[in-house]
């Protein structure tokens, strides 16, 4: 593993302590080491997803599905959007994932310093930085093994050995992340239980470690045990990822939610506490 990647991996799981800085000293060439104060300031940076005046009207129509949507979600936070069916919730997720282009508005990531001041220009949220798990994701499984399902679309040429080696490391991390360690990689994904199918769908999206993880009705069609398992899994993922879900299952997620919004008919989004 390159030293830069190892450095980022190690510091991501450690507190801002003196020992944390010592690891930085060991892994960083002396010529580019910063002072402890600058290093601690670097660690104090945080990002916020910012959606501004986002509207969407399908091409060839005069009816807007989303109207001037605005919201922000801080990194490593858990956001939930609720509201009636047909109000535009899934459409919003598709725009965030880059599956459709907005008619107007912006979707950006803004970095801030520890004092809450922007420290650089905002950057567009690109599709490569987003992982999305659709409702009933198991319906979209297309291969005959867990391994093939997760690696579908990966490069197959021999010249891409180093790339595949890197992806294999990410695969193992994703499998550990979602608790699929005990599942044989040659197992047919369609034979998994409902809860493990959702875990597999999450692992597919987590291989690339997205800046934003989106889920559409993640508990739909699951029995009570699988629902409990998925909620626990998302609680753990929240420690490392920014998570945004659309769900009608408000009580199950109430303990995880940092921000919530109601989508009203006509594609109007309003920040509002969960009505439970």
From TrEMBL:
One of its GO terms (cellular component) is chloroplast envelope. InterPro entries: AAA+_ATPase, ABC_transporter-like_ATP-bd, ABC_transpr_CbiO/EcfA_su, ECF_ABC_transporter_ATP-bd, P-loop_NTPase. Residues 49-276 form the ABC transporter domain. GO terms for molecular function: ATP binding; ATP hydrolysis activity; ATPase-coupled transmembrane transporter activity. CDD domains: ABC_cobalt_CbiO_domain1. SUPFAM superfamilies: P-loop containing nucleoside triphosphate hydrolases (SSF52540). Pfam families: ABC_tran. Residues 1-19 form the signal peptide. It comes from the Eukaryota. Keywords: ATP-binding, Nucleotide-binding, Signal, Transport. PANTHER family: ABC TRANSPORTER I FAMILY MEMBER 11, CHLOROPLASTIC, HEAVY METAL TRANSPORTER. This is ABC transporter domain-containing protein. It comes from Cucumis melo.
């Amino acid at each position: 593993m390159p030293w830069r990647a190892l450095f980022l991996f190690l510091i991501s799981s450690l507190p801002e302590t003196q020992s944390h800085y010592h690891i930085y000293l060991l892994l960083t060439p002396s010529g580019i080491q910063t002072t402890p104060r600058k290093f601690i300031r670097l660690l104090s940076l945080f990002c916020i997803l910012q959606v501004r005046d986002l509207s969407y009207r399908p091409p060839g129509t005069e009816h807007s599905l989303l109207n001037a949507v605005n919201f922000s979600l801080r990194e490593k936070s858990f956001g939930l959007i609720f509201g009636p069916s047909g109000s535009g919730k899934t459409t919003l997720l598709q725009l965030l994932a880059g599956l459709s282009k907005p008619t107007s508005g912006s979707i950006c990531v803004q970095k801030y310093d520890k004092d809450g001041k922007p420290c650089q220009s905002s950057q567009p949220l690109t599709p490569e930085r987003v992982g999305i798990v659709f409702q009933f994701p198991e319906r979209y499984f297309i291969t005959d093994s867990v391994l093939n399902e997760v690696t579908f679309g990966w490069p197959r040429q021999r010249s891409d050995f180093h790339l595949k080696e890197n992806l294999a490391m990410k695969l193992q991390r994703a499998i550990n992340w979602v608790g699929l360690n005990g599942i044989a990689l040659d197992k047919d994904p369609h034979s998994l239980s409902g809860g493990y199918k959702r875990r597999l769908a999450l692992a597919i999206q987590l291989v690339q470690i997205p800046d934003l993880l989106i889920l559409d009705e993640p508990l739909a069609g699951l029995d009570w045990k699988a629902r409990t398992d998925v909620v626990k899994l998302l609680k753990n993922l929240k420690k490392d990822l920014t998570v945004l879900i659309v769900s009608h299952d408000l009580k199950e997620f109430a303990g995880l939610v940092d921000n919530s919004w109601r989508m009203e008919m006509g594609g109007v989004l309003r920040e509002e506490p969960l009505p439970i």
